[in-house]
Design goal:
Helix content is 37%, strand content 12%. By secondary structure, the chain is an alpha/beta fold. The protein has two domains: 214 residues, Alpha/Beta hydrolase fold, catalytic domain (Rossmann fold, 3-Layer(aba) Sandwich), CATH 3.40.50.1820; 101 residues, Rna Polymerase Sigma Factor, Chain: A (Orthogonal Bundle), CATH 1.10.1740.110. The strands form two sheets. Strands 4-1-5-6-7-8 form a six-stranded parallel β-sheet, sandwiched between helices. It has a two-stranded parallel ribbon with strand order 2-3. α10 links the parallel β7 and β8. α1 crosses α2. The chain starts with 7 loop residues before the first strand and ends with a helix.
Length: 332
């Protein structure tokens, strides 16, 4: 952080992300979720910027969530934890930054649920950031995305090992939760696209399985199975329910008469990025925000549609398609 604190960038994470955005933690062999984007000489250049990422409330990586203990008792909140919104996540971060003596930042950057947070920052704390860079997000979660979340929620709730929310977290950590794995598989489908699945797997069959074995698998099936079941050993099921609820009820216009009225609050320079084949949050949803902002002649706003057929996760994978845009936005 420089002396006048003018080089701070806040990074907001997505649904299953955390404060571990880049680099390696001691004892771990996996880097942060945006490691290709953040670091010395990278797009968010840590030789130039002080980059800070916080874990959202409701999550399971340190900030208060449904499995936190209720002070002064030693019982977990579980269902007594309140439903939180994306706006609540942003307010909690703002309180943290005040405690750290950070009252203004150069930019806020995020994709997916992180992009939702960035947009909420722009509306509810309009003087906090000079620039907002939001990617692969939306102005309000649409039925298509809510439907995928519903599959995940129902899969968790109807797994007998979920025990109506009173499971032993150590047991889940060791054995996983099959219902949650099924829900995560549905989520993975929404994060990709038909083209990226074709490119990644084609019709390749698992080499050790016979084609006419009933439970023989295509490579795409093995991929979904592995990622689904592995996920359940490191992400808490109640946290998943709470965060998908926050995503479902997200709507920038809530509390205002219209989306246009909400966007009138914005004072930051706005840079919006949509991805052509994003099935979860369609690029036209980002374009709609950009079009509304374009009517305000005194506000700096810009929109980039990335020509990508990777799907929603392109903001995590195809960094080379928008890194120069972000660098330019940060220096304008």
């Amino acid at each position: 952080m420089n002396d006048d604190k003018s080089n701070i960038i806040v990074v907001c994470h997505a649904l299953t992300g955390s404060h571990h955005a880049a680099g390696y933690y001691e004892g771990e062999n996996k880097p942060g979720w945006w490691d290709g984007f953040i670091g010395p000489g990278k797009t968010l250049d840590t030789d130039e910027y002080f980059v800070i990422c916080t874990n959202v409330i409701g999550s399971c990586f340190g900030s208060s969530g449904p499995m936190s203990t209720m002070y002064p008792h030693h019982e977990e909140y579980r269902y007594k934890f309140p439903v939180v919104s994306i706006k609540d996540m942003v307010k909690a971060q703002r309180i943290l930054f005040d405690r750290l003596g950070i009252h203004h930042v150069h930019a806020i950057v995020g994709g997916s649920m992180g992009g939702m947070q960035a947009l909420q920052f722009a509306i509810h704390f309009p003087k906090f950031a000079d620039k907002i860079i939001a990617m692969a997000a939306t102005y309000a979660t649409q039925p298509w995305a809510i439907a995928f979340n519903k599959v995940a929620q129902e899969s968790i709730l109807h797994d007998p090992n979920f025990k109506n929310g009173y499971y032993d977290p150590e047991d889940i950590h060791e054995n996983g939760l099959s219902g949650m794995a099924v829900g995560r598989m549905a989520g993975h489908i929404s994060f990709l696209s038909p083209h990226s699945m074709q490119e990644k797997f084609g019709r390749e069959y698992k080499r050790t399985d016979g084609l006419y074995e009933l439970f023989g698998k295509f490579q795409v099936e093995s991929y979904l199975e592995y990622n689904g079941h592995n996920f359940t050993k490191w992400f808490d099921p109640l946290a998943y329910l709470y965060i998908t609820k926050a995503i479902n009820i997200y709507d920038l216009s809530r509390g205002f008469d219209s989306l246009e009225q909400a966007l009138l609050k914005i004072e930051s320079d706005m840079y919006l990025v949509g991805f052509k084949d994003d099935m979860l949050f369609k690029s036209e949803e980002m374009k709609l925000i950009a079009d509304r902002l374009a009517t305000r002649k005194t506000l700096k706003s810009d929109y980039l549609e990335v020509d990508s057929n990777y799907g929603h996760d392109a903001f995590l994978v195809e960094l080379e398609k928008f890194d120069k845009y972000v660098i330019k936005a940060l220096h304008e």
